[in-house]
Write a structure and sequence with these properties.
This protein has 631 residues and is α/β, with parallel strands linked by helices. The protein has 20 helices and 23 strands. Strands 16-15-14-23-22-21-20-19 form an 8-stranded parallel beta sheet. It has a 6-stranded mixed beta sheet with strand order 5-13-9-10-8-7, covered by helices on one side. Helix 5 packs parallel to helix 7 and helix 8 crosses helix 11.
Amino acid sequence: MSTVQVLLAVSLVGAALGEVHRYSLPPPWSYTCDRSNSSVGGHFVGPRCIKEESANAESVVGLNACKMTCGSFGMVWPKPVSMVHSTDLIHFIPQDLKFVSISTSSDVVSNLVNKFTDIFKEYMYMKSPDYEGGYANPFSNKPFISTTEIRVSVEVSSADASFTTQTDESYAVEIKPGTGKKIGEILLVTVKGTTYFGVRNGLETLSQMISYDDLSDTLQIYSSARVEDKPSFPHRGILVDTSRNFMSKKVIKKIISGMSYDKLNVFHWHITDTHSFPMYSRRVPQLTLYGSYSPRKVYTPQDIQEIVEYAKVRGVRVLPEFDAPAHVGNGWQFGEKEGQGKLAVCVNKEPWQDYCVEPPCGQLNPINPNVYSTLGKLYEDFFELFQSDMFHMGGDEVNLNCWNSSKEIRDYLDERGQVGTEDELLQLWNSFQTQAAERVYTAAEKKLPLILWTSRLTEKGEVEKFLNKEDYVIQIWTGGDDSVISELINKGFRVIFSNSDAWYLDCGYSAWVGEGNNWCSPYKGWQIVYDNSPRNIYRGQGGDPANENLILGGEAAMWAEQVDGAAVEHKLWPRLSALAERLWSDPTSSWKQAEIRMVSHRENLVSRGVMADALQPEWCNQNEGLCYVRV
């Protein structure tokens, strides 16, 4: 009887006795790289790994080893500006990798680097299928005799630890053999960047230049490689709404961790809305008392500061949004009881269709001076808690009929001989925006860029009547075919793309009021997300290439009418990875050229603990290029 037959017999006997054994027979498969760039089913397929029987292979190669060495970018996502690597891999275990030098000119930067090196070490543990968390090294008892020492040096040239839209996030990674008694004994890795945030991106890339080898139960790294990289856009983010449905601090941290794996750098926190006010306001606690769903569903100042610091270490800045004057309601009911008059009007008013875009309704009262003093206090809370170089003021979906049907505002208009025309109400809105902006500047103790959604104030031929291009950044949520996009950019406005026809990730589910599908259906698959290029949209509208620097980047949006912490991760990933490569690399190719890498990257996300949706059967990941529609 052969060895394989004996092992199989033992395994079957164990199963018959009710014992649980892990299937540990050596796989009969090996992988070889096909660089013929052939066509499969009418589709061009670049370098891909071909599955073959081990008995027919010159040497047995695992799937990850093949993926690392077959294509130009290995398993790195998003793809870097340039990358060269060896086809030889060196095996090691986490104990062999040591950070031997951290060169910085600032204690603050050194502290950030040290924190991230601890995170990096867990990345190595996560690559093992046996990792169970808690920083317990799953390789500690492996019968592996190491012959290589990997020495990692980190160099940060700037002492500036602030993180803004202007921060340099570029980096370089180099892997080369060192001098030892034998070839391969020492491997030298250098990660360089101008700022901590560039170096952090470099360490993220380095972690993806290492993979798990299931044949030897070890890790593997290139024997030599070099990466030089920088982002195509400075603003690469995701909006998460925590007002419509509350999401815990733990869930938010998981989202931020997932973002860091993809080099996404802006967590746009839509923290309040008409539905609830879950942020604890130290200066106006009544907002939280009246507005939170429950005392347990509140973000304390300590929670927020913890999230901001957690994000910063991972190369993510937290951008707070306080949407106004619409999308405000619950939490603001206390005004009349405290002698401040109505701070908000139309709150929970019915029938809701007459006063807002979705239930419940509510808008700030722009003629009540107490609104502005309250906003001033609230903005002070925001700037006390968040470290942001911009502030998002929302400013979309104002329902003019809400104001026009409110007695206080009707009386105000009558006193001025006005009848409530659209122009008169738009001027009222503009007056609110101007006064609110001044309160933001006062709270921030400086003038900083303000972000507004596209709205009635930014419609074609209107924006310059209300907004100054030096003061405002416009976030585009209308469709990618909206001609206002090129108009805004041509008029000198900086823009952030979130066009709903491609980057609204809450689309494609059943309606939550009535029946049918929700308003922005259909579902936006990763292919649509990937191919949505802000630059191409602008160019398609006849845009001037000289203005493309006004495109700061983009964000996907996860509005929370139909999602909470139980499901948000798999609704975000792996589609956010497609967004990440679009905004970091801005490839000239389409999703078809990225598909093999994308399916593989999703597996890496799962190994990191991200609950990413499956894109294809696992068979497709093991048989690259064979899951296609014939053309």
